[in-house]
Write a structure and sequence with these properties.
two-stranded antiparallel sheet
Length: about 450
C-alpha cells in the first residue's frame, strides 16, 4: 500500500509526522515554506563560526600557558574546555529541536544533506568546537540559492581549508616554496572535483587536480589571524583546469572563484548533484529517469537549487516505492521525538550528562557520532550501513528510553497512528495491541521497520 501524499511528504522529505505540527499538504506548500524566511534558525540560534573561532584562539593561549607550566593555566583550560563542551552539547540539542518543532521539515533535511555533501569532521585540527558554526554560516543560508554560491561559501570556508589541509599547500615555485622546500597539498582540489562538483568518473584527470591545486595555493586561514590570500605562497603562472586557462586575475581570489563558478554549472556536476539528491531522498538505486529529470532542471537553471528541488518533488517517481531508504541515526532520534510530541522546553535546558546519555552516546553506538563522519565523503547512504544487528539493538534500547521519558500516558495504538498514519500496516497495529506495557508498545512502534524506513 502506498501511503498518502501527506504521510510520504512528512516522512520521506521531512522528519516525520507530529501530533503538534500538521504534515505538508502539497508540493507547492513545501516549496513555499522553503522559499520563505528561515524562522526556525532565528528562533533557535547557534553560535557563528567567528564567535567559536575566537573561543578556540583563547583556548590555544591557555594550552600554550599550560605547556609552560604557568600558574593556574591547567585549571583555566579545564574550565574553558568544560564550557566549550557544554556549548557544543547545547548546539546538538538545538540542532535536534529545530527539526522536531519546524513546519519546514524539507529545509531541515536539506540542511543535513548539504552539510554531509560538504562534510567537515569536527575532530582534531581545532575543529571540534567550530564545525556547527561552519554549517550555520556557510551551508544553512545558501541552500535555496545558486549552487555556485553554496559551493564557493563551503569550499573556501576556514573550516574546510583547515579540514582538508589547504592551509599547508604551498606553490612549489612560489617564493615561500623555494625558500622552504614545501609543496602542494591536493586534498581540497581533489575533493572539490570528485565529491563536491563533477563526481567520481567526472570529466577530469590527475592533471586537472594538480593544476587546480596550484591555483588554490595562496588561500590561507589561521585561527588567530583569520582568512587571507598569501600571494608569496601562490604558484605563479596560468593554470589550466578542464581545458580552460585561468590567468586573467592571477594572484587574486577571482581566478579561484571563476573555476568554482565554471564547475558549478558543468553537466557532470548537474548529474552528480541530481544523483545524490535522488539517492538521499528516494532510493539507494533511484530510477535513472528521475535523475535525468532533476539534472536537466539543474542545468537549465544554471544550478538554481529551488528549481532543482522543484524538479525532484514534482516528478511522480519521487513519490513511489515508500520505505526504500533507512533513517540514519540522527534522523531516527529526531523523528522519534517529533512523533512523541517533544516540545522545545523539554530539551533546551537538559543537563550535559543527560544530553550525552540520551543523544550523543546513542548516536555514537548507532554508528553516527555527532559531526564526525569518517571522511570528506560524509556518511554512507545504503540501507545495509545503518540497519545492522548492533545498530538495531541500539535503536530498540533508545526507543524504550524515549517511550519512558516522553511517552506520557499515550495509548500505543493511538501512537502508531500519530507516528505513521497510513504507513502503519495492520500487523504492526495488531502487535502493538499485544504489548505488555504502554512503554513497550510505544517502543515497538519506534523500533518497527515501518518507522525506521522512509
Amino acid at each position: 500500500m502506498t501511503p498518502s501524499f501527506q504521510t510520504m511528504a512528512a516522512i520521506r522529505y521531512g522528519y516525520g509526522l507530529s501530533p503538534l505540527v500538521p504534515p505538508p499538504q502539497s508540493v507547492g506548500a513545501m516549496l513555499g515554506l522553503l522559499a520563505g524566511e528561515d524562522t526556525t534558525a532565528h528562533n533557535y540560534p547557534i553560535m557563528s563560526f567567528t564567535q567559536r573561532a575566537e573561543e578556540e584562539v583563547a583556548m590555544g593561549f591557555l594550552r600554550r600557558a599550560r605547556r609552560k607550566n604557568e600558574e593556574g593555566a591547567a585549571d583555566s583550560l579545564k574550565i574553558a574546555n568544560r564550557a566549550a563542551a557544554k556549548e557544543l552539547m547545547r548546539e546538538l540539542r538545538v540542532s535536534m529541536i529545530r527539526p522536531i518543532v519546524s513546519q519546514d521539515g524539507f529545509r531541515e533535511r536539506l540542511l543535513r544533506f548539504w552539510a554531509d555533501h560538504f562534510s567537515v569532521a569536527a575532530k582534531g585540527k581545532g575543529l571540534r568546537f567550530v564545525t556547527t558554526g561552519y554549517i550555520e554560516d556557510a551551508i544553512r543560508p545558501n541552500i535555496t540559492g545558486q549552487f555556485s554560491t553554496l559551493l564557493r561559501e563551503a569550499v573556501t570556508h576556514p573550516a574546510m581549508l583547515v579540514f582538508l589541509d589547504q592551509v599547508q599547500s604551498i606553490g612549489p615555485n612560489s617564493n615561500v616554496g623555494k625558500k622552504t622546500g614545501r609543496g602542494l597539498n591536493e586534498n581540497l582540489a581533489r575533493e572539490i572535483l570528485e565529491l563536491h562538483t563533477l563526481g567520481v568518473g567526472g570529466a577530469y584527470g590527475q592533471t586537472d587536480v594538480r593544476e587546480f591545486a596550484e591555483l588554490l595555493t595562496g588561500i590561507y586561514y589561521n585561527f588567530r589571524k583569520g582568512f587571507s590570500y598569501r600571494k608569496q605562497a601562490a604558484e605563479p603562472g596560468a593554470e589550466t583546469v578542464l581545458g580552460k586557462s585561468y590567468s586573467g586575475n592571477k594572484g587574486r581570489l577571482e581566478d579561484i572563484y571563476a573555476v568554482l563558478d565554471d564547475l558549478a554549472v558543468h553537466p557532470d556536476t548537474a548529474r552528480h548533484i541530481a544523483q545524490k539528491l535522488a539517492v538521499h531522498f528516494v532510493a539507494d538505486r533511484p530510477d535513472p529517469e528521475l535523475v535525468t529529470h532533476v539534472a536537466a532542471a539543474f542545468s537549465a537553471s544554471q544550478g538554481d537549487l529551488m528549481a532543482t528541488y522543484a524538479a525532484l518533488l514534482e516528478h511522480p517517481l519521487a513519490w513511489q516505492s515508500a520505505g526504500e531508504k533507512a533513517k540514519q541515526p540522527f534522523d531516527f532520534l529526531v523523528s522519534s521525538m517529533r512523533a512523541l510530541g517533544v516540545r522545545d522546553h523539554m530539551l533546551t535546558d537538559l543537563p550535559f550528562g543527560k544530553s550525552r546519555l540520551y543523544f550523543s552516546a546513542p548516536l555514537q553506538v548507532m554508528g553516527q557520532p555527532w559531526l564526525q563522519p569518517g571522511g570528506p565523503d560524509g556518511w554512507p547512504e545504503p540501507v545495509e550501513d545503518w540497519i545492522t544487528p548492533q545498530g538495531l539493538a541500539a535503536r530498540i534500547q533508545w526507543a524504550l528510553v524515549a517511550a519512558g521519558l516522553w511517552g506520557g500516558d499515550t495509548n500505543p495504538r493511538d501512537f502508531a497512528q500519530t507516528a505513521l498514519a497510513d504507513a502503519a500496516d495492520d500487523e504492526l497495529r495488531r502487535l502493538v495491541g499485544f504489548a505488555e506495557s504502554r512503554v513497550e508498545g510505544i517502543a515497538l512502534v519506534l523500533a518497527s521497520p515501518e518507522f525506521n524506513r522512509r
